[in-house]
Amino acid sequence: MSETFEDEVLNELGDERLQEIAGLLGTDPAGAQAVVGSSVAELSGELRQAAAEPASADEVRAAVDEVTSAEPPLQGVAGFGGLAAGGLMAGVLGRLARPAANAIAKRTGIPAATVTRAVDILVPVVLAVMTKRATAKKNGGTTADGLGDLLGGPRK
User: Fold this and answer.
1) Is 80 strand, coil or helix?
2) How far is CA 132 from CA 8, 20, 71, 74, 81, in A?
3) What gap in Å lies between CA 131 and CA 76, rounded to an integer?
4) Residues 126/10, Cβ–Cβ less than 8 Å
5) Residue 74 confidence (pLDDT) above 50
6) Residue 1 vs residue 25, higher pLDDT
7) Per residue in 42-63, pLDDT tens?
8) How far apart are CA 44 and CA 93, in angstroms?
9) Angle between helices 112-139 and 87-108 (to 10 degrees)
10) How many Cβ atoms sit within 10 Å of the Cβ of residue 75?
């Protein structure tokens, strides 16, 4: 996988949804892309942190297992009936969205409520990319080996 997780999320998001986020944030597509990149990084970090904490590690592990064994795999954003159709990982990401949005709001000065709406748009996209990565691994004859394979970068 030569594309970064952030690149894959941006590709899955598409120009129309990026424009929607830009309008929501009151910025241009480049500004929206920067916020999307920060949001993806923050969500990934929150997810890795949740996986490392004893109180939430089992739930994250179960959510990763569900994503990596999804039959048939979830395809694209349009395949989601909202977060309810995303299973355990959608629930985990949904809970992590607010802390991620608050961190981004603090760094950027954009109101937290606005960033939260943008991150909410990203959650099903992030889930779609994770599912596609798991499917690509499976189709390549291997299985996604935990959170590191789904998000890229070092495993924690």
Assistant:
1) coil
2) 10, 23, 12, 8, 17
3) 9
4) no
5) no
6) 25
7) 999 999 899 899 988 888 888 8
8) 9
9) 140
10) 12
